[in-house]
Amino acid sequence: MEKKFDFRMLEVADTTQILQLRNAIWDALEDKTLFAQSSDFCISESLKNGFGFGVWQENKLVACIICRCQDGEYAELLQYSGQQKEKTVELEDVFVNQQHRGQGLQKYLIQQAETYARKIDKSIILATVSPQNLFSIRNFENMGYDVVKSCMIYENLERYILQKRLDIPKNDNDIKEN
C-alpha cells in the first residue's frame, strides 16, 4: 500500500527534524563533495529570514527545501545590484531522504518555492549544484534554470550557480546561449 505524504511550510520548530534529515543524507553519501552541509545556525537563520517547505510521511520529515530571502551569498557572487538582491530568493538546501528519491519530491519542492517566491514579489531564483551532480543539474535545467556561473565556494568546492527568472516566461523554443 502506497503511503501518503503531507506537505506544509516549514517552521523554526521543525529545525530538529531538518537537521536529522540533513545528517542522515550526509552519512549515506559516498561522495561528500556532492553536498555542502549548511550549518545548524544557517538553517535556523534561513527559516527566520526566508521560508521553506517540507514533506512528511507518518509524521517524519522525508524531504524539504529551505530558501533565503536576504543576505544571499549567490547574489553576491554574481555581483547583483541592490535592487536585484531584493528580488532574489536563494535555494539554500533541498534534502530528499534516500528512500524517497525518484518520486518527484525535489521538483515538487522547487515548484512550491517558486510559487511562494512569486507571492512575495521575488523574480529571481538562484541555486547551486555540484558539476558532478548530473541528476540535479538535469532537474534544474528541465525546470527552466540556466547555469550562469562556475565558482569555488563552500570551503573550496566547485559549484555551478543556476538562475531562473520568474518574470520572464520560458518556453521550449528558447535557445540557450553559451
Key words describing this protein structure:
178 residues, alpha+beta, seven-stranded mixed β-sheet, 6 helices, 7 strands, 33% helix, globular
Query: What is the N-to-C order of secondary-structure elements (H for helix, E for strand)?
Result: EHHEEHHEHEHEE
Please tell me how large the radius of gyration is.
16 Å
The whole-number mean of residue pLDDT values reads 88
Indicate the structural class.
alpha+beta
Shape: globular
Helix content: 25-40%
- Tally of strands: 7
Number of contiguous helices: 6
Q: List low-pLDDT spans.
A: 172-178
Describe the structure in brief.
This protein is α+β, with helices and mostly antiparallel strands and 178 residues long. It is built from 6 helices and 7 strands. 33% of the residues lie in helices and 30% in strands.
Task: Give an overview in words.
There is one protein chain. This protein is about 35% helix and about 30% strand. It has about 180 residues and is of the alpha+beta class. Strand 2 (about 50-55) and strand 3 (about 60-70) form a beta hairpin. It is globular, with a radius of gyration of 16 Å.
Outline the fold blueprint.
Elements: E1 6-9, H1 15-28, H2 40-49, E2 50-57, E3 60-68, H3 73-77, H4 82-86, E4 88-96, H5 105-119, E5 124-129, H6 134-142, E6 146-153, E7 157-165
Parallel strand pairs: 4-5
Antiparallel strand pairs: 1-2, 2-3, 3-4, 5-7, 6-7
